[in-house]
Amino acid sequence: MSDFKDNKFQRPIRQLDRNLINKIAAGEVVERPASVIKEMMENAFDAGATRVDVVAQKSGTTYISVIDNGCGIRSDQIELAFSRHATSKISNVDDLFAVNSYGFRGEALPSIASVSHLTLTTRHYSEDQGTKIVIEGGRQIERKPVSAPVGTKVEISHLFFNTPARRKFLKAESTESRQIIRVAERMALGKPSVAVSLNLNKRQVFQLPANRPITERMAALFGVKSDGIVEYDVELSGVSYLVYLAHPDLARHDRTRICLFVNGRSVASSSIIHAVTSGYGEFLPGGRFPLAAIYIAVVPDRLDVNVHPTKAEVRLSEERAIHDNLYRIVKKALRDWRMVPGSEQAPGGHPMTGYRSGGNAPGPSSNYPQSSQTLFNQNRTGPSPSMSMSSFSLPAINRTNSEIPIECDNSQPIAEDKLKMSSEGTIQSETLNETDIQYLGKSGRLYLLLAIRGELFVVDQHAAHERVLYESSLKKVENGSGLSQKILFPETIELSAEEYLAFEASREVLSKLGFDAEPFGQNTVIVNGMPPVFKDKSPSRILRKMLDDIGVLNKAGGDLIKSVAQSVACRAAVMAGDRLSSEEVISLVIKLFSMNNPYCCPHGRPTFIKISIEELDSRFGR
Questions:
Q1: In a domain, 389, yes or no
Q2: What is the mean predicted confidence (pLDDT) over 221-242?
């Protein structure tokens, strides 16, 4: 029998003090600086703001400010706003199941104030004077009347100063910056009727005007062209869908560019993301995910928003039906768009049943509550575009044969010092020459067959060329010897905020490899020259794909220089279906065996296999 006289069984149950309760709540609501920005932007939207400006320093760890021109907070309610579960959004249980605002729990302000130094300056639209209140670690330090415009300014500094364990678990500054950008992008996409700006680490990341079409806002945020995005608007079984799908050629390496909004709220849903990616189906290369914005509107009683502390997830009463309908919508939208890579002009799509072109923004049917309809309608501004789509063609690819693209495997490269290579049968490059190699031909579209000193070698032409280019790139970075081939007409490229971060981080390395590119305004770069290995290729296409590769590899903990070299190798290497002359094959093989590690490509795949005479004799029973 247990000894209940032990001290741990003698501790009485007690009511926790208010400050400790707020810190516990902060652990759920305030995961990182991006969480603070999300909560403050939601409050601004709920206050009716038409403009929200966000500033963050040191990726939000030292300073965050969110300024809005909303209705403000009445001076006699400011202290109440910093008490837990105090909210103007709901008043009874029924309201909880018909929430039509972004926030409703009343936890954000007290939770943030308990783990930071917070200054709030606000003026209610009905008052002539503003109020400033300063709270540090949950304790009110100062309150005084001030002159201020209508609206609210929240300034947060020293985040997690009194919870060092939480601060310890923050990621690298670049990671926290990406999270801030992603949150701000989603909040801006969810509310195109509001002008939104983000200044991160003293750099203007984006500045978006209000009341512009969603395609224009997507183009500005993600660095793509709006004519590469198709819009479909349809209502099925009482649920309204407003779907924006980017061309598959703009696909990314992860799911972070699939933006989902339910009744105007940015949420995560693995089921709905699966519906979108499945709808793209064969249009997407393996391991790639689309760029898309999905807006769904349902009556509030079919939606439960009270299932996650930060409201990042929702529960839909008919999730399976919504999944299946969205899958069909995406599939039909892409088929109707009839994308033909490389065509001069993409034929116009044809509307599906229920499509409403032109006129006002779509919303739930007339029997929906007005509040829900308002929320959905704010998601979209401007007239619905005609289904006669602008042309969107892939750049011409100069290949000797139709190619099968081999996508980069952006998993971590196998550490070369861990490779266990047998010395048996190793070819010494110093003694290997053209007379040792006999090119026998090609098997399929990828594999080169060679006889080398009496043994049969099967070489993966893409993996082999990748290895050669990879090690060559590493040497060029080390020596700063990369050549640059000037572009006749320098190309200006608008990048997304995340792509620009990757460019800033890798700019010096890219320069050493021969990329002559420099900043040219907000999130824009101008490319004056490219490495010769990329001749006849689109600078914008190559740079975007490389920045995407670099971002993924860095996220996985890869070394920056190796990440850049790996991306160059993958993007410049010969592809399946490319025809090589006998001389080019022999030159490639000689270069391959002169590498430090000729056995595998930078991703760890083998570059060749060898079949000895003894093995052939054994196979044929000799």
A1: no
A2: 88
Residues with Cβ within 8 Å of 320's Cβ and at least 6 positions away in sequence, in order, are 271
- In this structure, what CATH number is given to the domain that contains residue 253? 3.30.230.10
pLDDT, tens only, 488-513: 888 898 888 888 888 888 888 888 88
User: Which of 182, 204, 226 lies at the terminal end of a domain, its last residue?
Assistant: 204
Query: Can you give the pLDDT at residue 79?
Result: 87
CB–CB of 284/290 below 8 Å? yes
The DSSP output letter for 347 is P
Shared domain for 196 and 294, answered yes or no, is no
Rounded Cα distance between 178 and 197, Å, is 16
Closest CA to 177 of 56, 62, 258: 56
Asked if 231 and 243 count as a contact pair (C-beta separation under 8 A), the reply is yes
DSSP 113-139: HHTSEEEEEEE-TT-SSEEEEEEETTE
Cα(615)–Cα(529) distance, integer angstroms: 50
| Residue at a domain's end among 204, 228, 257 | 204
Q: What is the mean pLDDT of residues 373-386?
A: 44
Greater model confidence, 48 or 376: 48
Q: How far is CA 306 from the centre of its chain?
A: 26
CB atoms within 10 A of CB 92: 6
The three-state secondary structure class of 468 is: helix
Q: Where are the beta strands (DSSP E) in 174-226?
A: 195-200, 203-208
Check whether residue 464 and residue 363 sit in a common domain.
no
> Is it the case that residue 298 has pLDDT exceeding 80?
yes
Q: How many structural domains does the chain have?
A: 3
DSSP 612: -
CATH of the domain at 434: 3.30.1540.20
Q: What is the mean pLDDT of the chain?
A: 77
Query: How crowded is the C-beta side of 320, counted as CA atoms within 13 Å?
Result: 0
* Cβ proximity of 36 and 64 under 8 Å: yes
- Reported as a single tens digit per residue, the pLDDT across 177-192 is 999 999 999 999 999 9
**Which amino acid, one-letter code, is at 4?**
F
| Residue of 226, 224, 228, 217 whose CA lies nearest to 193 | 217
Euclidean distance between CA atoms 339 and 346, whole angstroms: 6
Torsion of CA 196, 377, 90, 48, to 10 degrees: 40
Nearest of 462, 478, 419, 448 to residue 596 by alpha carbon: 419
Strand partners, 239: 236
Nearest partner of 491 among 452, 532, 544, judged by Cα: 544
As a whole number, mean pLDDT of residues 470-474 equals 89
Same domain assignment for residues 300 and 366: yes
Check whether residue 572 and residue 484 sit in a common domain: yes
Amino acid (one-letter) located at 418: K
* Structure token pair of residue 410: 């952006």
Query: DSSP secondary-structure letter at 438?
Result: E
Same domain (yes/no): 539, 478: yes
Domain span at residue 279? 214-377
Q: How confident is the model at residue 398 (pLDDT cuts 50, 70, 90)?
A: very low
- Pair 371, 426 in one domain: no
Residues 88 and 198 in one domain: yes
Interatomic CA distance for residues 527 and 519, integer angstroms: 9
